[in-house]
Amino acid sequence: MDNSTSFKSGFVTIIGRPNVGKSTLMNQMIGQKIAITSKKPQTTRSRIQTVYTDMERGQIVFLDTPGIHKAKNKLGEYMVNAAEHTLQDADVILWLVEPSDFVGAGEQHIAQILQKVKLPVILVINKIDTVAKKENLLHFIDTYRKIYDFDEIIPVCALHGDHVPDVIDLIFRYLPYGPMFYEEDTITDQPQRQIVAEIVREKSLHALEEEVPHGIAVTIDRMKKRKGKDLMDIEATIICERESHKGIIIGKSGAMLKKIGSNARFEIEKLLEQKVNLRLWVKVRKNWRDSDLMLKNFGYQEQK
Q1: How far apart are the first and last CA of the chain?
Q2: Least confident residue range of 8-12, 25-29, 48-52, 226-230
Q3: Residue 35: count of CB within 10 angstroms of its CB
Q4: Per-residue model confidence as pLDDT tens digits over 163-180
C-alpha cells in the first residue's frame, strides 16, 4: 500500500456545549470506552486523545474536549481553554449539538470561535432518538444552517450507534493524505492510571448527589501488580471540597464509598483484563478548583 497516495490521517476535534454526548460519540467511533460519560454536564475535564485506524482508508486521531461553557472558577477556565486550544491542532471539527429549533448564546459563541479557524466543520445533531417526528429534523437542520456554513450536517444517536459509521465516512472525506501517527493497535494515548482515575470519578458522578460531583477529583496513589499473583492493587483518593461532601461520598456506614468502589472495580477489571483490589479514601481540599497548585497536582495542566 502506498500511504502517500491512498492513506489519510489527521486530527479531529469534537466540540460542543456540556452534556451533548461528545464522549459517548467518541467511545462509539473507536468501539471502546475510554472517555467517561455521565448525564451531569462538564464530565470531561481534559483533552482526551483516542485513535481509530482503518488500514484501508487511514487513521483518525480524535480529540474529545470539555464542553465549552461560561467558566465559574479556575477549573472551568482550564476546561474552556483545553477545549478551544484543541481547535488549533485539528484538521476537521465535529460540532455536536442536540435537536433544537432555538440556537442559544452558547452555540452562538461556538459559531463565532469557528469563524476564525477556517477548517472543515461537520455538524452532528445527536440524540435523534428523542425526536418524536422525523420531519422535525429538517427544521432543526435548517435552524443550525442559519448560524454557520457547515461542510456537512448529519443526525445521529451516539448512545445507540445509529449513523455513527456515516460520521466516520464523512471524516475520511475531509482528512488530508498522510502517514500513520500511531501503531495500528493503539486506542488511546491516555496512561492507564489516568483512565483508572477517570473510571472512579465516573462511578462517583453516577452515584452522588447533584451538588457534589463538580467538586471532586480522583488521584491514584498506588497502582502495582501483586508479586506472584494475577492481581492489581490500586489505592485511590477521592478529593472533595467540603466536609459535608465527604460525609455524602462515604455514606452511612461507608455504603456509598463501597458502592462507588464496587462499580469502579468491575469496570477497571474489564479494562486491565485482570482481578483488581481497589481501596478508596476520601479527603477534603477546600476550594481546590480555584487553586493553581492543586489543579496542577490533580493533573489539570495548562495547554501550551
Answers
A1: 36
A2: 48-52
A3: 24
A4: 999 999 999 999 999 998
161: left (phi over 0), alpha (psi -120 to 50) or beta: left
Cα→Cα distances 232→83, 161, 188, 196, 277, Å: 33, 33, 21, 12, 6
Closest CA to 119 of 159, 76, 152: 152
Integer Rg of the chain from CA: 20
As a whole number of angstroms, the distance between CA 111 and CA 105 comes to: 10
User: DSSP state, 67?
Assistant: P
Q: Which three cell numbers stand for residue 157?
A: 444517536
Q: Using CA atoms, how far apart are residues 141 and 110, in angstroms rounded to an integer? A: 17
- Give pTM, 2 decimals: 0.63
Place of cell 479556575: 74
Length of the chain (residues): 304
Instruction: Name beta bridge partners: 198.
Output: none
